[in-house]
Each structure stands twice: as structure tokens, then as C-alpha cells.
Amino acid sequence: MASVDVVPTDEALAIVVARARRIPDRYRTFTESRESARRLHRMPDELLDRLLALGFPHGTDGTEPTFYTNDLRNACEELGLPSPQRSAIMLMGAALEAGARETVVRRTVDLHARCPAPGHDGDCGFTLAPSLASNNRVTRFTPMSAAHCRLTVELPGGRVSQFTGAHRELLAELDDVHFARLPHALADDPGFLRDAKLADCQSGARFLVERAASYGVSARMAFGILLTQPFSNTHAWAELDVGGEWLVADPLSLAVLARWGVLDPAAWPPCRSPHGSHWKLGEGVEALVRHGGRPAPVSLITRHG
User: Fold this and answer.
1) What phi, psi does 294 have (nearest 5°)?
2) Residue 74: CA atoms inside 13 Å, Cβ hemisphere, count?
3) DSSP conformation class of 8
4) What range(s) does the Transglutaminase-like domain occupy (predicted)?
């Protein structure tokens, strides 16, 4: 059974429940059992019972409560449980630090695609997103098999940049917005962000882009890969034009990493622009690999060199 080093207070649990309740139930699908909450998300039974007593969202399979995956992920991250999501957050902090430290960030990414519909007739046909194969940050591209390719990526790093003036005022609009993993339907709903004060990486970035003109700032969306090791992840962020240079703006990520003690908040304020960690593929979210027109699940195994 999973355990926690520090037992969360009732107040901390109530905050987690209150934030979860800001998301309407109509966007939830309750598919996680108590067993999967314990085994996959490292949520101890006694802690889950305390959350349920405070009104944590749940359904039922007839005998036992069932849960929404993102609710469990958000709760585990907020409470500091040793969950896979918490580990990913720690790795993100390490990637940002490496980007600030290394003048040239060179990573090798092995992309493995999986069939989204096993058991179909005929052979699998995988198509790589053009933005990967022809990306100007890819210095070497090696096809390994139909479902596996290897890419060497180089990003410029070793810089410290901070937004000032109107750019910083724009980013401050997210100061009272809390990061949370949201249903896909809410990622494109700016009204939800304003009312609930919750956002994921995509909705937070979209909000900044929509508000930028009010500050006289040029902004655009960015979608790509955050180069964390040993597994990279897709990510979305905003880019702001500063004197003709487009800089990464990712204030929600920096704020949550600082709040959870992963990064030093004095060195990594939300107005800082990360370098050497955010590999941009385009401005819109896209599938990295398709299989017969459908997005294919992928893993991005990442290492130095």
C-alpha cells in the first residue's frame, strides 16, 4: 500500500476537494476503481476515504466508488504523493535546470509508436508528423522500424531571460490561476478559466495569447515536446515577442514547480523564460504519429547525446 511521509491536514484535503468540485461532473467519466487509485496513482485507502468524506467527486460501479483519472492525478500531485505524475513533475524541474545550465542542449529521443487498434486486418501503417521529420532542431533522423525512429535534437540553452514591463503584466493575469489537469473540452474554454481559476498548460497558454493584444504584446501558441529524461512529454505554452525574438512563456508550470518545492521560486519566478527545454513543433496541437488517420499512442525515451 502506498504511504505518505507527511499526513495531509483536513484543510489541505478540503482545498483539493474544493478545486475538484469546480469542474462540472458532466465532463467526467468515472472509470478508475479504488484498486487502481491505490495501485496506479499511489493513493492510500485511508487518504481516499478522507477525501470521499469531504465530497471528493466519484461515481459507483454498484458496490464501490469509482473515480475520474484527472481528479486522482490532481489530488496526488497537490498532496505530494509518490505518484507517477509527481515523478514527471520532478523530471520537468530537472529539464528546466539543465536548459539553464547547458549552452547547447543535445538529446536523443527514441519515438516508439503503438497500434491504436490492435487486431485489425493487414499490417500497421504509421505516419510521422511532418513537424518532427523536418524540424530545424533535429540534427539527425534515423528510421529504426515502421513504429520506431530516433531523433537527435539540439536546443540553445545556457541563458537567463525574464519578461518585464507589459510582458510581465500580461503573465501576472495568471497569478491567481491554479494548474490542474482538465477534461479536453475545457482546455478551449476561456470562460471556465476565468470563472474557476483553473487551467492546464494548453488553456493557460491560449488565455495569454488571447489577452496579449490588450497589453500591446505579440503572442502566439506553441506546441511541442518538453525534453525530460528518461521520458519526454508533449506540452503547450505561449511565446511572446520581445524585440523580435520569440521567447517561451510558461508561467503556470513555473509557478507550480516553485510551489511544490521542485524549483527555487527566487530563481524561477513565473516571469522567467525557460531556455533549452521546450522543443517547439508548431503552433497547434497535433498527433506525433498517425495510424490509418487515427492518432497513435507514443513513448518518447530520451537521453543525453
Assistant:
1) -100, 145
2) 28
3) P
4) 193-253
| pLDDT confidence bin for 3, thresholds 50/70/90 | very low
Q: Tell me the pLDDT band of 5, cut-offs 50, 70 and 90.
A: low
Tell which wins on pLDDT, 129 or 3.
129
Let me know: does 197 contact 178? Beta carbons within 8 Å: yes
Q: Which domain holds residue 21?
A: 10-82
202 phi and psi angles, rounded to 5 deg: -70, -45
What are the Cα distances from residue 261, in Å, to 127, 254, 258?
A: 40, 11, 5
The helix/strand/coil state of 5 is coil
DSSP three-state, residue 17: helix
Whole-angstrom distance, CA of residue 8 vs CA of residue 79: 7
The verdict on 56 and 122 lying in the same domain is: no
- Would you say 182 and 200 are in contact if contact means Cβ atoms under 8 Å apart? yes
Q: Assess if residue 300 is contained within a domain.
A: yes
Is residue 222 located within the same domain as residue 73?
no
